[in-house]
């Protein structure tokens, strides 16, 4: 009785297994798509310009601190202990301000990364919408991103690459 019940369950499961259809898979390379998009170059240039301005400000703060240390060392013999400690405290305060500036601008949630996210968000939304359209047009069950590091894609057959379809959906022509 138990053997026949197992056999019925196995046959029942197999009948469902043969009725299901395989899902269609594909992948895209979002890094490739971004680099082909003309707006990305504009965004990169703007971020580079802004980043260079902030780096220059940080460099000026560091230079000022080094000059203050050099000046303190040169005048150390002439200063009283109280004057020396006062100047040293002022320099250390400048160092804290410099570190705070660097953290505020280039830190994990700094202004540079917030600006990057702000500028890239509309472009990423366009690309996502194009990915969705291409996935629906091609009846894809899953679409992977080759540029995403933790995907685990070791080998990809170019026949399953839908990056060019996404570029076409975005209206970007191939001009190699």
From TrEMBL:
> Transmembrane region positions?
none
**InterPro entries in the cross-refs:** Chaperone_Skp, Skp_dom_sf
Q: Is DNA-binding tagged as a keyword?
A: no
- Pfam families xrefs: OmpH
Keyword Coiled coil recorded:
yes
Native organism taxonomy: Bacteria, Pseudomonadati, Bacteroidota, Cytophagia, Cytophagales
As recorded in UniProt, coiled-coil segments are 44-78
Its name, as the record gives it, is OmpH family outer membrane protein
Arranged from A to Z, the UniProt key words for this protein are:
Coiled coil, Signal
State the family it belongs to: Belongs to the Skp family.
Q: Which SMART domains does this entry report, sorted A to Z?
A: OmpH
């Amino acid at each position: 009785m138990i053997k026949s019940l197992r056999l019925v369950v196995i046959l029942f499961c197999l009948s469902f297994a043969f009725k299901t259809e395989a899902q269609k898979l594909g992948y895209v390379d979002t890094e490739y798509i971004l680099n082909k998009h003309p707006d990305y170059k504009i965004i990169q240039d703007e971020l580079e310009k802004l980043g260079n301005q902030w780096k220059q400000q940080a460099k000026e703060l560091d230079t000022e601190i080094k000059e203050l240390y050099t000046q303190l060392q040169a005048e150390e013999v002439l200063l009283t202990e109280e004057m020396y400690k006062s100047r040293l405290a002022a320099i250390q305060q400048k160092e804290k301000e410099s570190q705070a500036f660097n953290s505020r601008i280039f830190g994990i949630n700094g202004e540079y990364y917030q600006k990057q996210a702000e500028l890239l968000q509309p472009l990423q939304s366009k690309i996502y919408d194009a990915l969705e359209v291409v996935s629906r047009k091609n009846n894809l069950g899953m679409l992977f991103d080759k540029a995403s590091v933790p995907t685990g894609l070791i080998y990809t057959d170019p026949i399953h690459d839908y990056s060019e379809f996404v570029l076409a959906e975005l209206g970007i022509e191939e001009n190699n």
